[in-house]
Amino acid sequence: MKNFTSVHDVSDINALVKIALDFKNDPFKSKQSGINKRIGLLFFNPSMRTRLSTQIAAQNLGMEAIVFNISHEGWTLEFEEEAIMSGTTVEHVKDAAPVLGKYFDVLGIRTFPSLKNREDDYSELYIKQFIKYSGIPIVSLESATLHPLQSLTDIITIQECRNRQPATGNRQPRIVLTWAPHVKPLPQCVANSFSQWINAWGVADFVITHPEEYELDEQFTKGATITNNQNEALKNADFVYVKNWSTYKDYGKIYCNDPGWMLTNEKLMITNNAKIMHCLPVRRNVELSDDILDGSHSIVTQQAANRVWAAQAVLSKILPPSPKGV
Length: 326
Ligand code: CP
Known about the structure:
This protein is of the alpha/beta class. The protein has 2 domains: about 150 residues, Rossmann fold (3-Layer(aba) Sandwich), CATH 3.40.50.1370; about 160 residues, Aspartate/ornithine carbamoyltransferase (Rossmann fold).
């Protein structure tokens, strides 16, 4: 694996899931593989789970992890080629990334979209420029359009539940991604990425449900059944993934914000005793009700805990054979 920025960097999803679950079983079995190797974790935006789980994963492999909250503590970077830097940007990524490439063996980057200009956000300029100029493997810790470590975690969690309780017999599990209300316009990353990974995984009856005007980019959703009827989607669902996203077409807006789209115990009755997933953080009683989050169907903590094993699996596959040794 050269970089980890989307499902396209993974040749065999099931093999990667198995590596992750093996690490969950025996966290320190590859403790020697990361000795004298170092990962830099660059955060342009806030994080709890991604930051901590990736640090723990690196340490489990014997690596050193250094966190850099670059948006608060670093120089403001310029990403545009041939920019005349007479404005607010202080250092070009062309100059900064090669330096980071000398300090670290692997670089993780979190960068959110602006939600102002769709073409800019969907060009993934930040991640692409770090890949171009750092000279070392890049791991996305969530980018403008995707969140691959989260999606790998989600599949690990679904597979883990299926291993424990193969309730669906021979039929494919029905996995439903449902839009939920929110007070702020949020990125489409988690929903895009979940759709991309579940479609690539190819083992599920995959349904996406959202109000009109919340269609996601077809490049990620193609292959799924898409409906504006949430109750219809939830029928016989085995897993329900709850997530808000802002509009894609008329970019970054909140249109409908009908609280009726919030999942409740009443709606759970329509499902096949479904497990409820959310990437967290979650706005209680806006996106998901207390009764769901505090009830026995919620697997959000298991899901977040699995972030460690997803990160560890990816780092174990991406680590270069010999350390940089600055
Ligand atoms: N799910 C997720 O990425 O959480 P953080 O934003 O806390 O890292």
